[in-house]
Design brief:
Largest sheet: 6 strands, antiparallel
Shape: globular
Distance between the termini: 28 Å
Structural class: mainly beta
């Protein structure tokens, strides 16, 4: 999903909240920010996304340590869906980073 930033800038985000919240009137969505600054030394904090994953046009990383709730009006377009194995990796990394085990 793309989100509108300041000015006319848009940057991709990864929606991570349960689909159950889509069924109720709720003005925000929980997301992880996505960056194009790929770093190999921070694997515990990030999940690598390759070109083509969820229709991304370049390698990126979902920053699991950058969880935010953003206003739904800032979500501008759906880019795609993560492959199942990446979705599992995101969930596992969230559990580790947030100490939910």
């Amino acid at each position: 999903m793309n989100r509108k930033g300041s000015g006319n800038n848009e940057s991709p985000v990864l929606l991570i909240q349960t689909n159950l919240l889509a069924k109720i009137p709720h003005s925000s969505t929980v997301v992880c920010l996505i960056t194009t600054h790929v770093r190999k030394d921070a694997e515990i904090l990030k999940v690598h996304l390759s070109t083509g994953d969820a229709n991304l046009n370049q390698p990126c990383e979902a920053m699991i340590d950058q969880v935010r709730a953003i206003d739904n009006r800032r979500l501008t377009e759906r880019l795609g869906t993560l492959p199942d194995e990446l979705a599992v990796q995101v969930k596992e990394t969230i559990r580790i980073v947030l100490d939910l085990e």
